[in-house]
């Protein structure tokens, strides 16, 4: 029984993710909201709340993130009413938006890895030149 309930919440979370992304793309007409991506939705066990994790292009500072979250959370009632039109559930979860920092962390980690690889390559070049260039000729 627990697996079935867990599967249901996952299906509802997937449905909400797709529909909220569609509402952001087509239905929300706020100029303060640019290109926003919905990364994850987690629905509470009793389906009363849905935590929506988003990120946006061009949002670089903490103030911009807070402003975006303020706009989205202020429009949460609009999202909830739009979602209510699109499903047959008894109740529609209350929407809470959170900023997902994983894309920025991923880019930062990629940059650190690239820098480390570049530094390793730079350290290994002088060593092969000291050997007389035998590695370079092969």
Task: Please write out the topology.
Elements (H helix, E strand, L loop, with lengths): L1 H26 L8 E8 L5 E8 L5 H13 L1 H11 L7 E6 L2 H29 L3 H4 L1
Task: Provide keyphrases for this structure.
138 residues, GMP Synthetase, Chain A, domain 3, three-stranded mixed beta sheet
Brief account:
This protein has 138 residues and is an alpha+beta fold. The longest helix has 29 residues.
Overview of the structural elements:
With 138 residues, this protein is α+β, with helices and mostly antiparallel strands. It folds into two domains: 2-100, K homology (KH) domain (GMP Synthetase, Chain A, domain 3, 2-Layer Sandwich), CATH 3.30.300.20; 102-138. Helices cover 60% and strands 16% of the residues. The chain has five helices and three strands. Strands 1-2-3 form a three-stranded mixed β-sheet. Strand 1 and strand 2 form a beta hairpin. Helix 1 (2-27) crosses helix 3. The chain is elongated, with a radius of gyration of 23 Å. It starts with a helix and ends with a helix. 12% of the residues are buried.
Q: So, the CATH homologous superfamily of the largest domain?
A: K homology (KH) domain
CATH architecture call of the largest domain: 2-Layer Sandwich
Strand percent estimate: 15-25%
Sequence of strands across the biggest β-sheet = 1-2-3
> How many individual domains?
2
* H/E series: HEEHHEHH
Low-confidence stretches: none
The biggest beta sheet reads:
3 strands, mixed
Gap from first CA to last CA? 65 Å
What is the gyration radius calculated from CA atoms?
A: 23 Å
* Total number of strands: 3
Kindly state the percentage of residues in helix.
55-70%
